[in-house]
Amino acid sequence: MCGIAGVFGTPYSNTEVKKMLAALGHRGPDACGIHTAGELSIGNALLKITGDMPQPLTGKGALVLNGEIFNFRELAAEKEIKTDSDTELLFSLIEKGVKEGSTPMDSVGSALSKVNGDYALAYVCGGELVLARDPSGVKPLFYCSGKEEEKTEIAFASEKKALAFIGRKAKPFPQGVILGFNTENGEITEKIPEGYLKIKSPEERIYEEQEALSQLKKALEKAVELRLTPTAGIAFSGGIDSTYLAALAKRTDPGISLYAVGLPDSHDIAQAERAAEAIGMKKNLEVHFLSPEEIEAAVPQVIYATESADPMKIAIGLPLYIVAKTAREDGKRVLLTGQGADELFGGYRRHEEFLEKGAEVLDRAIYSDLASISKINLERDDMVTMASSVELRVPFLDKEVIRIGLAISPELKVLKKKGYYEDGFHEDSYYEDGFYERKYILRKAAEGLIPPEILWKEKKAMQYGTGVQKVLDRLARDSGFSKKQGSHIEKYLMQIASEKGFDFVNK
């Protein structure tokens, strides 16, 4: 939706926030605003998607928000607030709490306990600055705090590079946490809102398959519907996750565009074409054929966007970067992706090994995956799409989908079967000790919408399926880095970062 930034503790806070917002301009090309009170400034670079409300919003306090509150219309009707802006709705809830005597931190916590959304925000009122981030960390937020010449300072922004441009080193703001900063004494307090969805073992489990299917299908249908807009598309690889999203989205928007990228002879292009045809959406599919030259030209842009020279981040981020760029050129401002399905429903091969050790081991692995998904995947994906001013939306990380997903028994996520594969869609036909069906309950939920030849087929990882990994390997070797000496792609990427002067890039 946008980029946010703020600084406290210097008379130059307004100037520094302006510099950060300039660095975040790609996140919000539609408007820019700053609220300053003494040595505190907060600002916003706006990408208009829901409503047309300039930020910061000001009243008793001031608010900047990066994100979307998907149930804001329901909340607005319930609270009898007339608005077409999710930001205004959230601001009204927070301000109401403050006016009724709650602290700014408690007011933010109370408001967030009611919402279903993805967000990073800053609210300032009186002598308190409050920062908050959604439980899954879908929206990025970075911050730093400390003392400068006996004076307490704090700064935050949607991307680390914005903080680097004002000489600050930042760390990720924790998922699902609210932080309150007292601007008078520098005291910092943390809390998790009451009623907040926590990524932990649920109190009640769903062991029965039909009950799991019933609840999961209903939650996913609503999660997709809530995230669709007239300017939405789907990042489409033809795997079960993106194909299921496309089939669900088709019910609401039959003309929604599907975007696939890859080298002309790549696995992902062939798979996307087969899947789109199988669900009756062949005409919806927009294919962008990559070339080695285009990949090479995009590498510096992806390093800059992700703030990293990590080979895996670049190899995975690069195809999504070009998908977002293609969608933006097509007039789209929102992209739905299947991110989170593997973590929540046991989609990785290592999940098979965890199940072998016991269902409770797989359970813990899934909780761990969700707790770290922001740092490993979501921050990267947000930054490469927002580089083209395209907002990423992740239905599989909807609040209700996560609640139900965590409650479903792990044995329904990774199902162990005996003997032969019966579907004919796996590479091997027989395993002496049996075989595993990863994301079993998710695949079963999609039955009836997706034909079996797509539903039960395993898919290659994006960096291999698109052919990007192969091109990066060649580019590194052509640049003089020997594969035999190790880390040749990382060395190639670090050389580019150094040549471009990207001092903020992770070493």
Describe the secondary-structure layout:
Blueprint: E1 2-8, H1 13-23, E2 31-37, E3 40-46, E4 57-58, E5 62-69, H2 72-79, H3 86-99, H4 104-112, E6 117-125, E7 128-133, E8 142-148, E9 151-157, H5 160-164, E10 171-172, E11 178-182, E12 188-191, H6 209-227, E13 232-235, H7 240-252, E14 257-262, H8 267-278, E15 285-289, H9 292-306, H10 311-329, E16 334-336, H11 341-345, H12 349-357, H13 359-386, E17 391-393, H14 399-407, E18 415-420, E19 430-437, H15 440-445, H16 452-455, H17 462-465, H18 468-478, H19 488-500
Parallel strand pairs: 13-14, 13-16, 14-15, 16-17
Antiparallel strand pairs: 1-3, 1-9, 2-3, 4-5, 5-6, 6-7, 7-11, 8-9, 8-10, 11-12, 18-19
Describe this structure in words.
Helix content is 42%, strand content 21%. The protein is α+β, with helices and mostly antiparallel strands and 507 residues long. The chain has a six-stranded antiparallel beta sheet. A six-stranded antiparallel beta sheet has the order 4-5-6-7-11-12. Helix 3 crosses helix 4. The longest helix is centred in the last third of the chain and has 28 residues. It is globular.
Overall form: globular
Which band does the percent of strand residues land in?
Answer: 15-25%
Number of helices: 19
Radius of gyration: 23 Å
Number of strands: 19
Mean pLDDT: 90
Structural class call reads: alpha+beta
Low-confidence runs of at least 5 consecutive residues: 427-432
Oligomer: single chain
Distance between the termini: 29 Å
Q: What spatial order of strands do you see in the largest sheet?
A: 2-3-1-9-8-10
Query: Could you describe the largest sheet, including whether it forms a barrel?
Result: 6 strands, antiparallel
Q: What fraction, in percent, of the residue positions are helical?
A: 40-55%
